[in-house]
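Ticket #4471: structure export looks truncated?
Reporter: QA, pipeline team
Priority: medium

Steps to reproduce: submit the single chain below to the structure queue and open the exported record.
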Amino acid sequence: MNINDMLSDKSFLVNFEASSKKNVLYELARLAERDIKIDSQTLIEALTKREKLGSTAVGNGIAIPHANCPNIDKPKVFVAILSNSLDFNANDDQPVDIIFLLLAPNNNGSEHLQALALVSRLLRNKELTTKLRGCKNTESAFAVISQSVREKAA
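Actual output as written to the record:
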């Protein structure tokens, strides 16, 4: 499993100004709906339910909301790089400005956990997150992630 297999050039909101946590989750759900034809309202309900269990903010300004979804055959990632920071109820009390929405197939819990671990490991790279914060468009964000994956593989 590779992060590039979970992304497409349609997977990004870059330099996005979000008014709230709910707003950015809604926009990411709409992005997913357009890309993989999943019902955004159903996805919002799943994400809201997950956030009620505990914040998906992992610290250092990063959140990884996640949900299982019907009708997808492999994990998908959608990325929001915000122009502003939002309160995501993070344990480190830091506002969030990088959000990786992870969607996984309904029928494979281990694949969901593997994808979540992969995204989490990727986002521990401070050089990567610094570069992502400097991105002004989809192409640069996609290139930063792809380059990071290539460097790690080398």
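Status: closed, not a bug. The export was complete when the record was re-opened. Leaving a note from the reviewer for reference: The chain has a mean pLDDT of 91.
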